[in-house]
Amino acid sequence: MVKSRQWLLNAKATGLPTIEGDNPTFKLVETDLPEPKDDEVLVKLTYLSNDPAQRGWISKDADPDRLYVPPVKEGSPMNARGLAEVVESKSSSFKKGDTVIASTGWSEYAVLPAKQLQPTPDLPGGKGKTHYLGALGLTGLTAYFGLTEVVGTTSDDTVVVSGAAGATGMMAVQIAKNILGCKRVIGMAGSDEKCKWVESLGADLCLNYKSSSFEEDIKKALPAPDGFANVYFDNVGGSITDLMLNRMAKYGRISCCGAISNYNNSGDATYGIKNWFEIIIMRLQCKGFIVLDYMDKYPEAREVFRKALEDGKLKIDEGEQIVKGGFEDVPKTWLQLFSGGNTGKLVTAIQ
Amino acid sequence: MVKSRQWLLNAKATGLPTIEGDNPTFKLVETDLPEPKDDEVLVKLTYLSNDPAQRGWISKDADPDRLYVPPVKEGSPMNARGLAEVVESKSSSFKKGDTVIASTGWSEYAVLPAKQLQPTPDLPGGKGKTHYLGALGLTGLTAYFGLTEVVGTTSDDTVVVSGAAGATGMMAVQIAKNILGCKRVIGMAGSDEKCKWVESLGADLCLNYKSSSFEEDIKKALPAPDGFANVYFDNVGGSITDLMLNRMAKYGRISCCGAISNYNNSGDATYGIKNWFEIIIMRLQCKGFIVLDYMDKYPEAREVFRKALEDGKLKIDEGEQIVKGGFEDVPKTWLQLFSGGNTGKLVTAIQ
Questions:
Q1: DSSP per residue over A262-308, as a string?
Q2: A117, A95 in Cβ contact below 8 A?
Q3: Which of A246, B35, B181, B256 has the CA that lies 20 to 30 A from B172?
Q4: Do A271 and B274 touch (CB under 8 A)?
Q5: A258 touches chain B (CB under 8 A)
């Protein structure tokens, strides 16, 4: 019998999730895990993926009929993907010491069916396997399909990426500029330092959305009538997207990937998009997507990434921020996603 | 030399356009028209088309780089399409007494290049030629292409039409139900009487958006998890569209045709769409369009309409509201569009 600490969802969230105070969102407990049965594996969490999408799974307002993954139940461990080490295996597919990707949740140890684990082949250039949680995992795939399948981005396009210093954004910028060869790639991020970094990844320009001149900066960067954006890869929603609706070229395409600016807002606090009419007069397309819809094409994208890595077209080590900490700090690290605290993929290394 | 009264755009509009008071939006003048030159025609306006889109052409806030037709200039006659009678022709294509469709503007008489006029062949069943301004003109074509080309509506779809008692909406309802054979067609309109009328055209159900139970009515009409809408043909935008974002099925398609609820609002008064995140989680597509983009396919649609008329699948006489009035009442009649005063296509008969 293995004892494991777990962060449970204590109470569904309406605003910013909490760890302390009355009725906090998350609660740390210690629990006895069952022994692995046949075809099950006991794993020990080593690295944890931090993703804005997790916020949606614990939202009090969320209608379960309209979630693409089942919501986390109160009293259950918080859901999350992680890199884990096999401690004990009752499956012929994995052996002790193997490194796997799994939905471990916020749990030091987990007993999981072997078929839910994903192996982690060695990466070229000896790159760390944590990239399977980010650039070479669902985050990178999200950026890839959001640009290709969802809105058919080509080298003729001027592409804008919001949340460009985030895990998905920094991959979208690099894929657009360095793999698809887009005419112009403009990022948006929350500080001058982040913007400089996004430009170092390949963006022709990156605008600081916290700057007082942001609205003017967008207009200058995307001038009428021929400089408007053809593609907008949107990670943030809210006021930035509202401004962007006003800067899209005729027949422009918006790849709706995320809306992090509103994940901790509900009801009246949610930002309302006023420039909806632009969709009509400019004949825009806004297309929502979830990376899981493109699962059958993952191998194709992974092959593109492998080649791009070999050709030096993807900077992934620079786009990974590994935060070391005790298991007790897991929610605190995750919350950095919502305060602009991360640059690139935020990964927690469990000490 | 012909004298003609004209309604000029006196001052671009920010809110609801005005006729009286300080600096009104429109101003009535009398002017001398030039003699028609070679290949020009003098026409007398007989019926005027009233269209919500005209509001966009006189908006003070409108960015000229983002309009699909040139804006009306202050001091010029208000732009409009009309049915007119040829009074004098210097073109071999038209003769005195011919009935034509033309961009006459709000002008009793107009001198126009013959190539800008459109002939009006007799309609089957002796139907009035005013239908060329509505059901069988751009309004009907808008409904047709908005359902077919824009979002590929099929008989498997549950379709919702907002502004269903309007000129475009009433055609969208009939095309969806009676021509495309859609599974369910639900209209939305602004009174119980209008709703009853929309149902008489073929809608399975029509909801009164002014009812206090509207939000509940939508949920009941489009129940989770299998009753959600696959297609939303949107004429109104604003709060109704916000509610509908929450009732779309996975991979649902929104045909963004109009946003009349906000045409007279600007700045803070504009309704902000809060349910943007639904686009992502439900993988929705929102596609804006303008009927002019489908000009090369007009003949195909007209043929569909002709056959549907023969087969009794389109009620068009019922969807035409002809308001008789003096030329001095032209703007007042047009303003009925924004107060819910019309049912079906609003046409002004110039007395």
A1: GTT--GGGSPPB-TTHHHHHTT-EEEE--GGGGGGGHHHHHHHHHHH
A2: no
A3: A246
A4: yes
A5: yes
With an 8 Å Cβ cutoff, is A143 touching chain B? no
B350 contact A CB<8A = no
Residues of chain B in contact with residue A225, where contact means CB-CB under 8 angstroms, are 65
The secondary structure of residue A53, as a DSSP letter, is: G
Q: How far apart (Å, rounded) are the C-alpha atoms in residues A253 and A244?
A: 11
Spatial contact of A235 and A169, defined as CB atoms under 8 Å apart: yes
Q: Which two tokens stand for residue A113?
A: 């069916």
Nearest to A280 among B256, B270, B280 (CB): B256
Cross-chain residue pair A288–B281, CB shorter than 8 Å: yes
Q: Considering only alpha carbons, which residue of chain A is nearest residue B251? A: A288
Burial class (CB in 10 A: 0-12, 13-18, 19+), A15: exposed
**Domains of chain A from N-terminus onward:** 2-134+320-350 (3.90.180.10), 138-292 (3.40.50.720)
In angstroms, the CA A298 to CA A309 distance is 16
pLDDT digits (tens, 9 = 90+) for A8-63: 999 999 999 999 999 999 999 999 999 999 999 999 999 999 999 999 999 998 88
Sign, CA dihedral A243-A246-A250-A256, equals positive
Contacts of B140 (CB under 8 A, 6+ apart): B134, B168, B171, B301, B305, B316
Alpha-carbon torsion angle B235, B237, B241, B245, nearest 10 = 100
DSSP H stretches of helix in B202-282: 214-221, 238-245, 277-281
Return the percent helix, strand and coil in chain B, to nearest 5.
35, 30, 40
Q: How far apart are CA B344 and CA B169, in angstroms?
A: 8
HSE-up (13 A, CA, CB side) for residue A262: 27
pLDDT at A255: 98
Q: Has residue A64 got a pLDDT over 90? A: no
Res. A128 pLDDT band, cuts 50 70 90: very high
Compute the count of residue pairs across chains A and B with CB atoms less than 8 Å apart. Answer: 114
The C-alpha atoms of residue A326 and residue A100 are separated, in whole angstroms, by 21
Buried-state track A213-237, b at ≥16 Cβ within 10 A, e below 16? ebeebbeebbeeeeebbbbbbbbbb
pLDDT digits (tens, 9 = 90+) for B308-328: 999 999 999 999 999 998 999
Interface test with B, best of A150, A279, A282 (most B CBs within 10 A): A279
Closest CA to A54 of A79, A19, A77, A74: A79
Written as one letter, the residue type at B236 is V
Question: How many CA atoms, within 13 angstroms, populate the side-chain half-sphere of residue B165?
Answer: 26
Structure tokens at A141: 């795939």
Percent share of chain B, pLDDT over 90: 91
Has residue A102 got a pLDDT over 90?
yes
- What residues in B contact A279, CB-CB < 8 Å? 256, 286-288
Contact A139, A166 (CB under 8 A): no
- In one letter, which amino acid is A319? G
Region of B340 on the Ramachandran plot (φ > 0 left; ψ -120 to 50 alpha; else beta): left
Q: What is the pLDDT of residues B63-82, one digit of tens each?
A: 888 887 889 999 999 999 99
